[in-house]
Design goal:
63% helix, mainly alpha, 89 residues, flat
Length: 89
């Protein structure tokens, strides 16, 4: 969730990150550098708000009812020879 939200928010600065911005930048006649010069402040605000919301909902260590993440045990292949052969291939 964190990666998706931050990647989506971080793409605000890029004028070619989605079709809407490509059409908007063409319509208003902004090249990439003037676009970035105009959008740096909204970009920082959007990232700060996104990080604040992510912290509030996902990263708070004292979140009520939150269970700590326990990684699953490592996978042990049943046939090590087949595994290594496939890995080399």
């Amino acid at each position: 969730m964190t990666t998706v939200w931050l990647a989506n928010t971080a793409s605000l600065l890029l004028p070619v990150s989605n079709l809407t911005k490509i059409l908007a930048s063409d319509r208003i006649g902004l090249d990439p550098l003037p676009w970035a010069a105009r959008m740096w402040w909204p970009q920082l605000v959007a990232i700060a708000i996104t990080m604040l919301l992510l912290w509030w909902w996902y990263w708070r260590p004292a979140r009520a009812g939150a269970d700590p993440f326990v990684p699953p045990p490592p996978h042990v292949p049943p046939d090590p020879l087949l595994y290594r052969t496939a890995l080399v291939a």
